[in-house]
Structure formats: C-alpha cells, structure tokens
Amino acid sequence: MPPADKNRTKFLLDEKDIPTQWYNIQADLKSPLPPVLHPGTGKPIGPQDLAPLFPMELIKQEVSQERWIEIPEEVRDVLRLWRPSPLFRARRLEKALGTPAHIYYKYEGVSPAGSHKPNTAVAQVYYNKKEKVTRISTETGAGQWGSALSMACNFFGLQCKVYMVKVSYQQKPYRRIMMETWGAQVVASPSSDTQAGKKVLAEDPNSPGSLGIAISEAVEDAATREDTKYSLGSVLNHVLTHQTVIGLEAKKQLEKADDEADIIVGCAGGGSNFAGLAFPFAADKLSGKKKKVRIVAVEPSACPSLTKGKYVYDFGDTVGLTPLVKMHTLGHGFIPAPLHAGGLRYHGMAPLVCKLYADGVIEAVAVPQIATFQAALQFAKSEGIIPAPESAHAIRVVIDEALACKKAGKRKTILFNLSGHGHFDLGAYEAFLAGKLQDYEYPAEKIAEALRGVPEVKA
Amino acid sequence: MPPADKNRTKFLLDEKDIPTQWYNIQADLKSPLPPVLHPGTGKPIGPQDLAPLFPMELIKQEVSQERWIEIPEEVRDVLRLWRPSPLFRARRLEKALGTPAHIYYKYEGVSPAGSHKPNTAVAQVYYNKKEKVTRISTETGAGQWGSALSMACNFFGLQCKVYMVKVSYQQKPYRRIMMETWGAQVVASPSSDTQAGKKVLAEDPNSPGSLGIAISEAVEDAATREDTKYSLGSVLNHVLTHQTVIGLEAKKQLEKADDEADIIVGCAGGGSNFAGLAFPFAADKLSGKKKKVRIVAVEPSACPSLTKGKYVYDFGDTVGLTPLVKMHTLGHGFIPAPLHAGGLRYHGMAPLVCKLYADGVIEAVAVPQIATFQAALQFAKSEGIIPAPESAHAIRVVIDEALACKKAGKRKTILFNLSGHGHFDLGAYEAFLAGKLQDYEYPAEKIAEALRGVPEVKA
Question: Sheet containing A159-165: which strands, arranged edge to edge?
Fold first, then answer.
C-alpha cells in the first residue's frame, strides 16, 4: 500500500470493481428463514402465489439458498453510471469530535436519484423486462423509491406507474417532478384509477392517503393487468440481496485504506440500506472469520420495530392484505408519529434483518429525532454533504460511538452508510433550525394496542 | 493505455491529481486585457481602490500576469472533499442520438453545494481568513453562489452574510435553508440592514428585489465594516482563474480516455464555469499547439451578451456603482426576461471571456429556452442526471453538434461542462413538462435602448 493512502479522504474503485455477484446471506444463516405464510390457509406460500406480482427470477432469488447470485451485465452497465460509489474517510468530522476513532462512510447519494434505492430498482426492472413485462406499478411515500424505479424503468424502456401518498404528492412536488422527468406516470393516492382507491375516496374524498392505501392500489394495478408487475423497494430478501453491492465495494475500499471495520452502522426502516452495507460484513461474523465486528441497525425511537417490537408473524402492509412474514413488528396497525425521516416509518422490518437480530448477529439502537438532526448538522458542517434525515440516524450513533472512543482513549474504525442526500428534505432542516422539531415519546401503549392486532399463527 | 479504458463510462483521478496550480490565461493573451476604469475619473483603478472590498492576495491575482498561480495546500485540502470531479463519457446519450461523436462531460454537481461555485468560494474565503477577515458579505439570486460561499465560510470558520433577492428568498426556500444549515445569515434583499436597502424599501415596501440591489447591499455591508470583505462568484479574473481546476483535470482525464477534444462547450452567464473548463484548452490554441479546437460559449437567446451585445466599457452592476469594465454588454440597464436559468441572466460577461471572443479564440451561440429544456430532458433520460437549467444550454449545443457529426458522418470529440445538478430547479422542469415554458423573442429594441445608457469612455 503506498503511504499516500494514509492521508486520503476518498477511496475510489474502478468500474471493473463493481461486484459481479450479489451476496445472498440466506446461504449462511444459522437456521433457515421462517417461511412466508398465506394469510388465508396459514400454510407456506409457493412461487405460484407470487407469480401475478413478480417475475419468476425475482421469486427464485427470494428463496434462493445460493451464496452468490450473478449480476447480469446489463444491470452492471447501468449501475456504472454512478457505481462504484465513493468511500469517504470523515477526517473533518473526526477532528471536530476530537476522537481517535476512524470514521468512514459509503456515500450512496451519488446516484442520480440521490439514494441507494436504484441499486435494486435497476435489477428488478431488468428481470421484468427479460420476462416481457412492459409496465411496472409501485407505491411511494416521500418519493425516494418512486424516483429510483422511474429512472430504472426509463433506462430499460418500461412504463412506470407510481401511486404517491396524496399528502406527499401535494407537499413534496419536487420528487414527483423528478419521476415525471424520467417519464413515469404519478398519481396521488387514493386515486380513482383503482377499486381500492375509489373505495377510500367514496368514504372520504379528502383522504390524505397512506402508504398502506398506496400499496393496495399498486398491487391491484399489477394483479389486474396482464402487462404489469409490481415492485417493492425494501423488506424483501431479493431487494436486500441487490443492495449488497454497497458492502462488497466498501470491503474492497477499506482494504485500500488499509483499515478494518470494528463497528458497522446503518439506519433501518425497511432494512435495505442497512443490509446492503452490513450483510457482507455479517458474513465474516457468521463464518467466524471476524467474530468481533459489531453491526448496529439504527431506528427512530418513535418507530422502534427492532428494539421494542415483537418477533412474530404479521402482515407486511398496514391494511392486512399481504402474506404473513415473521419479523420484528410494532403491529401492522401501528401508525408512527409524523417523523421527518419518512423512510423509517414502517411498522415492521426486513425478515432477514430480524433473523440476524434474533440470532444475536446484529445489534439495534433507537435514537430520538432532535438528537438525530443535531448529528446531521454536525456532519453537514464538517463534511459538507447534507444528509437525508434517514441516514442521519446512523450518523447519530456513529458520533456517539466515536465520542465513546474518545472517552475510553480507544481507536476503533467505524463504517456507516450515508444512504442518501437531503436535498429534498430541507424543510425538515428548516424546522430543526427554527427549533420546531419535537421528540416523540416512546409510544408504549400504542404499540401494545397495535400488537394485540397481530394475527395468531402457529409456526 | 489498457484496452479496458475504451469501454469506460467514468474517468476518475486520484486526490493527488487535484491541480497544484491555477492557470491564469492573462499570461497568454494576444494583447493585455483593457484596464478597469474608475467611474468618476475614467482612469485605471489601482489596488488601493479595491482594498476595502477584497483581500490583497485576490487583488494581486486579479491583475497577475503569471501563467501559474500556486493553489494553497489548505484550499486543496477542502477541494478534495469532492475533487477531482468525474469525467463521464455520455455513451447512452451518444447511442440515443445515433451519433459517431464521442461526448464527454465534466460533472461539477458532485460538490456538496451542487455546482462548480465552491471551487472559487473556498479559495476566496481562504485568502480572506489569511488576511484576518472574519466576516464576508455577498449577494445571491437563486442561491447557487450564496450556498457555495456559505459552505466555504463554514469550513474556515468565517461568518457569512448573504443578501438574497427577495423574490427568490420567498419562492426558493430550499437554497436559503441550505445556506442556513452551513451557518450563514441570509436576509431577503432589499433589507433594512443597509442604507441602500432602506432607501429601496422606503420607495417601495413591496419591492421584489433584484441582483443589482442585492449587490449594492452586500458591497455597502463590506465597505462599512472593518471585519468584513465582499466576495463575487463570477465575472472577475481571479474567480475564473480559480475555476481552471475543472479544465486542468479534464485534460488529464481525456488523456486517460485516450481521446482528444475537438469541441469544448460551456454555458456562459458571468462566464466562470465556461472559463473553468475552456481556458486550459484555450491555452493550447493560443500557443499554437492545438489550433483547430473549437471553443463554444452558450448563452440564452433572451440574454445574448456575447452574440448581440457591444464590446464596450460598461458598469458591472445594474445600478451603475461598480468600476467600468470592457466587456460584451447588453447595457447595464437591460433587464432580461424571467428565464429559468437564473445564472445566465446577466447583462455583461467576464472581461477575460470577452477578450477571447473579440480575439477570435472562442465562439458564441445563443439558444432558446424550450429547445434547451428539450435537450435537458433528453440528457436526463439518457444519462440519469437531471441538469441545472444553466448547464442545459451547453447540452443543447452539444446535441446539435453531435447530430451535425451524424449528418456529416464525422467522428468528433465533444467535451462540455455539466456545471451543476437541477435538484433545486425542478419547478422549471415541471413548467416545461406541462408545456408552460415560453421562448422569449430576441429583444432587439430593448437591447438597443439599454445600450444607449452605456457610458462613453475613451479607452
């Protein structure tokens, strides 16, 4: 290693270093993932149950036990528009904190859509196209996932229909325009384009919408049209697998930095950016190669699925239409407080992340909103980049760990995923700077109530 | 050169490849730049006239005839947070156009502020700090420059006061919040913080403000406070010199691509992003090393200073307070139509750019707004990145040149500066997608009228 590396800020890889295979952690779990169950029969679902919604290759990946899954050349050809993403050493943040810790961050905001989401969007659209699908439907809240999918559909020439939660559609027009710029059709949900939407509108014409309603609309759209499949931006196994390019690259980059991670940190809403960075490192822990690495998922204290939820079977959506999956859940009826990190307001968590948590492979921490934005501001002032509020949850824990290193006089290497930039979240920063943000109490009673609605399943 | 390079999309450089010297084109001009004149005496101004506003090192750089100016290590240390910026080969755009041309773009949107502006902001703040200045004032229109300067002041621990044109302050809150996140104080101009602002407000309490008024406020702020200097984001010689890191890097990157530029394209408002890319290539043209390279500045047809203006002495601001500079001007009283490319709505042009145009070293083209957004959309759909409306002017000409190559069956290499992303300009995209944009007629009469207001100067 040339000595110059020791002073570097950025660790870059060449396009040829984009991984050629995704890492599928299912191959290395201590025991198999609990099966997904049909909500009616309570029996494990099969590929045929999912076929109306997903192309067969993604259904295969969902249950694959192969450790490595080939990344098609056509997918890598799109990924290289922004990948490999840079690994940064946060030297200015280290200095501001006065910590002996080394802090690194993998920056996924370099994708044109501004987050890690396109990593799976591109792969999903590719497999759909290969199986002659010409149109994809999906839902989006604040718009991160919708814009990633819109861009990916545009690259492969597929039509894209996005059901965007009405309140976001009205309040966050920029994400909508971004999707339209890439050619997607975006409607406010509830819409009159589906039976599900019409039903909600009949009951309440002024409904602000919800992610649950938008999911219902997007699923109905796909289920009722021959040319259309449905696409999900997180939670599912294949989505998490697609995101492992993040961690696979980061491992190579840390090698270039001649460093080794002691602590891996990622925020976790559905779980995909966390998994993308963490799973390749978790592999070394599972294999016994690096037993001591700590892997920390960070969630908002207002929506603490891992730290306060129950590891039981529950519905993936809020309405109760999806198959039942075993995960840490606050109850599908739990409605989290109006946090600014929209991507972390999910009642459940990716089953793979939950399994690792249950098996003691990873840790979880919940952090409150104001402390999170304090960390975001300190990061922006040190490193320049204004982080997405979701990613800022990881930064909060990174700063806390770095300060603990300072106190203990220990030099540890901390790596986290800066999953996106905050260019479309500056309203949240304004509220923070004006002292208008609030912390939400840990809603113990609401969670207990929502958990009473979780269906009983004999696994 | 390894053959793999031939298929690459991105050409990256190492941090150690950040230039160590800026290129000062004054050393290579065919004849010296006409002097800047005092508006009262009509005589050339000296360093002492500028000393209240700028630190001495920048005043020296403004008139320096040295070809190379050392970049301080402290400046490079900040630049490496995002530099070297990537050079992209636009393979997907080439394919979409079916052109034999090679299209490359240097992407400056990777800076945390989202444009090329921080390249000079960091340098300017550094020299101010070195001369014990603790506070900097400036004006900003849509906010690109204000955010770059805010970020730079934050890194060096200086206070920053930004006078933001009131109509932008109200309509584009995100840029303002970005500045505040980095710690700047932002006020809507006209403000009651200055005599100039108070005067305007007394006459019209509802004044929407203008860049001219904001300049007056920022200059007064600096001139009346011992701790404060003033900072400009374009037009001046030292600003353009600081931007040459762009072209110096691009030259190295084209070498890595084993390619040579035939046509260099940049949009030109004040002239700094154009100059930043073009001047290092213009050097080869001036020296006779590469006589045939074409260098094209692109301006909006609604504000065509190079193509329709006169090369005469005029005021740099709209009010008529600055020294007189020889430049292509539409008359300092010319008010351009409300284009969405706010950064290109300037009545004049950087004197260095004008000199090269007058000497026949560079060309200029004016393009209309709708065709510009058509090019922006084609680029976004091909390459993913949504360009700033300013940069899209360059893209329009690049596409036209690439199509001319197709028609002629000629393979040329075109390089342009993608000076920023359009994340804060999506309102303009929405207007375009909705068919609500308009082209503005070439305002011959308005320009003729404004030109009658240009002061008579015997040079």
Answer: A185-189, A159-165, A135-140, A228-230
Interface of A with B in 182-211 (CB under 8 A): 182-183
Residue A315: HSE in the Cβ half-sphere, 13 Å Cα cutoff: 20
Q: What is the pLDDT along chain A (459 residues), one digit of tens a residue?
A: 344 456 899 999 999 999 999 999 999 999 999 999 998 899 999 999 999 999 999 999 999 999 999 999 999 999 999 999 999 999 999 999 999 999 999 999 999 999 999 999 999 999 999 999 999 999 998 899 999 999 999 999 999 999 999 988 998 899 999 999 999 999 999 999 999 999 999 999 999 888 888 999 999 999 999 999 999 999 999 999 999 999 999 999 999 999 999 999 999 999 999 999 999 999 999 999 999 999 999 999 999 999 999 999 999 988 788 899 999 999 998 888 888 888 888 999 999 999 999 999 999 999 999 999 999 999 999 999 999 999 999 999 999 999 999 999 999 999 999 999 999 999 999 999 999 999 987 788 999 999 999 998 865
Kindly state whether residue A323 falls inside one of the protein's structural domains: yes
Q: What range defines the domain where residue B395 resides?
A: 11-15+73-114+238-451
CB pair distance less than 8 Å for B182 and A380: yes
In this complex, the residue of B10, B178, B433 whose CB is nearest that of residue A181 is B433
A143 neighbors A176 (Cβ within 8 angstroms): yes
Q: Chain A within 8 Å of B444 (Cβ-Cβ)? A: no
ipTM of the complex: 0.96
Q: How far apart are CA B445 and CA B443, in angstroms?
A: 6
In a domain, B53, yes or no: no
The tally of domains found in chain A comes to: 1
**Does residue A100 sit within a domain?**
yes
> Do residues A405 and A103 make contact, with C-beta atoms less than 8 angstroms apart?
no
**Cα-based angle A286, A288, A291 (whole degrees, multiple of 5):** 90
Residue type, B100: P
Residues of A in contact with B155 (CB under 8 A): 92, 384
A36 within domain boundaries: no
CATH code at position A289: 3.40.50.1100
